[in-house]
Design a protein that fits this description.
There is one protein chain. By secondary structure, this protein is of the alpha+beta class. The protein has one domain: ph1033 like domains (ph1033 like fold, Roll). Helix content is about 20%, strand content about 30%. The chain has 3 helices and 5 strands. The strands form 2 sheets. A 3-stranded antiparallel sheet has the order 1-2-5. A two-stranded antiparallel sheet has the order 3-4. It is globular.
């Protein structure tokens, strides 16, 4: 991720749903308090952009043939992953926003 990128906000707890959009406002920088100092974790700062009218549950994402190759479906344990433009537009539409 880099400053200016757009990110989908996904709740990975009980809800498991895409709920909105944020903007990346800083370039990646080292985690100031890593759990394991031997690892190279980085973080970015984000800024609220917009909330979906309808959250898009993981079950909806999984049931869409058009999203079958979405990384979230294939490797759900990743915290951050790239999203193709076509997937981003479809998820926005499912969330009740204009693509």
């Amino acid at each position: 991720m880099k400053k200016g990128d757009i990110a989908l906000i996904y709740h990975s707890g009980d809800e498991k749903a895409v709920v909105g959009v944020a903007k990346i406002v800083t370039t990646a920088y080292p985690d100031p308090e890593p759990e394991d100092p031997k690892t190279e974790w980085v973080q970015v700062d984000i800024e609220y952009f917009e909330t979906f009218k309808n959250s898009v549950p993981l079950s909806t994402l999984k049931s869409s043939a058009a999203l079958a190759d979405l990384m979230l479906i294939r490797q759900s344990r990743l915290s951050v992953m790239p999203v193709e433009e076509k997937h981003y537009r479809l998820i926005r539409t499912l969330g009740g926003l204009k693509p």
